[in-house]
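Pasting as-is:
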Amino acid sequence: MAPGGLHQRLLEATTAQLRKDLDAPALRMPAVGDAAFEELRAQVLRVLEERAAMGAHAFGLVLNRVDIPEAAFRRTMAQGGMPQLAAAVVLRCLQKVRARERYAGRG
């Protein structure tokens, strides 16, 4: 598979994982390229802020579904607040996708 095809597949799968874990079906998949991570991070940041405004329970559900441990959450928030947490959420979902790819023999 061409590198662009691999990037497309990983971006599609990561976006789908984020939609599922964040319960955010309107999350848009960015175009493959250098700005893709930042575009996803910005969208995730908005979702996290919305969930935080809904209260601790709604926000906690997101962190549990994404699988961000409490210690990592506290450390990330101390280092960079919600923008840093949004980046960590995107990376965690990418890790989930890569793990599935590896176990499926594709990565």
